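Severity: low
Component: inverse-folding endpoint
Summary: output formatting inconsistent between runs
Steps to reproduce: submit the following structure tokens with default settings.
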């Protein structure tokens, strides 16, 4: 499958890496590192050199307890970066936002993908995404970022997340968004306990079986820290292990901080999964 992101294409016949570029002061892992446009551009170029197939630019932290950001401030943060990167890089630029105005303006200056943690539920977002004519990732989140981790509860987390995502897909289709432009994301860490996250990770084949491309973002998250008793800087190996598990069951997009390490691991996954019996004699 080829994902057409406003003329820049991503080959989803194998798992691909989406590199995270947070131009925020307070994101949980790299907040403040890439607030300056030049630093952001340099980091994006390095991620592409390391094998990232998409660069995901975000201007508002969605970590638990993070303060809200105004539309104007988010636009000021992301537009110069999106515009510059869309000119300079051969890969698509994604805009990580839930705000309709940010979606519209980012697409105007070159964004070819929309990554929305609220699955286009905010005012005007559905219309903005439909008008943008670019692929959209719909993520599941219980609650909202400021309070989502206070006491997440599900009767059946896999069924509820699965049903929600398919409902959002159906609504998007009714609003004119093409099936081939829709991606689903179970939303690891967004209103989920460790047990919820593990259940979803194990159930990823169910989401893959929908036929829709699946995106996952587990990189450096608290579930990795809890399982390994590791601080942020020590979660690379755990994050890559989770990425390998996801890719091995058919997840197409892996959103990560550590691009080089993840790309190398996914090359092994792709080599093994594409190996055919008839090739044995060549080894």
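Observed output (run 2 of 3):
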């Amino acid at each position: 499958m080829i994902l057409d992101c406003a003329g820049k294409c991503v080959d989803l016949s194998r798992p691909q890496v989406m590199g995270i570029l947070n131009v925020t002061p307070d994101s949980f892992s790299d907040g403040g590192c890439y607030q300056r446009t030049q630093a952001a551009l340099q980091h994006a170029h390095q991620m592409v050199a390391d094998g990232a197939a998409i660069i995901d630019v975000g201007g508002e932290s969605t970590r638990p307890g993070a303060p809200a950001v105004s539309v104007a401030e988010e636009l000021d943060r992301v537009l110069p970066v999106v515009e510059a990167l869309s000119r300079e890089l051969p890969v698509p630029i994604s805009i990580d936002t839930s705000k309709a105005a940010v979606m519209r303006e980012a697409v105007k200056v070159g964004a070819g993908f929309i990554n929305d943690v609220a699955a286009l539920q905010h005012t005007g977002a559905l219309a903005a995404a439909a008008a943008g004519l670019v692929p959209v990732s719909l993520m599941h989140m219980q609650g909202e970022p400021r309070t989502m981790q206070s006491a997440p509860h599900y009767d059946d987390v896999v069924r509820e997340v699965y049903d929600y995502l398919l409902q959002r897909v159906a609504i998007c289709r009714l609003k004119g968004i093409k099936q081939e432009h829709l991606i689903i994301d179970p939303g690891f860490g967004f209103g989920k306990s460790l047990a919820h996250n593990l259940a979803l990770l194990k159930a990823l084949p169910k989401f893959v079986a929908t036929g829709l491309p699946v995106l996952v973002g587990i990189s450096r998250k608290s579930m990795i820290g809890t399982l390994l008793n590791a601080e942020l800087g020590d979660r690379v190996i755990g994050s890559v292990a989770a990425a390998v598990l996801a890719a091995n069951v058919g997840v197409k997009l892996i959103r990560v901080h550590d691009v080089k390490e993840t790309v190398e691991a996914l090359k092994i996954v792709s080599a093994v999964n594409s190996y055919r019996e008839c090739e044995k004699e060549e080894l």
